[in-house]
Design brief:
Blueprint (H helix, E strand, L loop, with lengths): L1 E7 L2 E6 L3 E6 L13 E7 L2 E7 H4 L20 E6 L5 E6 L1 E7 L21 E7 L2 E6 L1 H5 L5
Parallel strand pairs: 2-10, 5-7
Antiparallel strand pairs: 1-2, 1-8, 3-6, 4-5, 6-7, 9-10
């Protein structure tokens, strides 16, 4: 299966290409009142209103300074991955850097561990792939988008 790989706070993640509609350079995000913590707002995608989620915040990841304090900084250099959910709804996900499209054989995918990951919600994980000296965390799009599509 083909996956789009990307990084958030120096960790590598992947999503199935089959659900990635497109990848955009950072766009102007319009903030809406009373949104969930991980939701940043909406963008105009060729006339369609698309909600945008801070994927790092959704996964419980934060950028920390040397004292261990801090929060994720959203910058213009980041990219937005537009995912299409099974019912056709679209959601934008802010990522730090989109890397590449890779093929990952099913036999290379290990089940997610029961504990020890920064990702608190294990249902968001499809599996983990070990590559050289690092890991790529495969995300499950539908549970990931659940909060954005309500």
């Amino acid at each position: 299966m083909d996956y789009v790989t990307f990084t958030i706070d120096n960790d590598q993640f992947a999503l199935p290409v089959s659900q990635v509609r497109e990848i955009l350079q950072r766009d102007t995000i319009t903030h809406l009142p009373d949104m969930d913590d991980c939701m940043l707002g909406i963008i105009n995608l060729r006339g369609s209103v698309v909600p945008v989620m801070d994927l790092g915040k959704r996964l419980g990841l934060t950028t920390r300074d040397q004292t261990g304090h801090g929060d994720r900084n959203i910058t213009q250099e980041q990219t937005i991955i537009i995912l299409e959910a099974s019912e056709g709804a679209m959601v934008g996900l802010i990522t730090d850097v989109v890397r590449e499209v890779v093929q990952i054989p099913q036999e290379d995918i290990q089940p997610p561990p029961k504990t020890g990951l920064a990702v608190r919600e294990s249902e968001l994980l499809r599996g983990i792939v070990s590559t050289n000296d690092s890991f790529t965390i495969l995300l499950a799009p539908e549970p990931l988008l659940g909060g954005a599509l309500v």
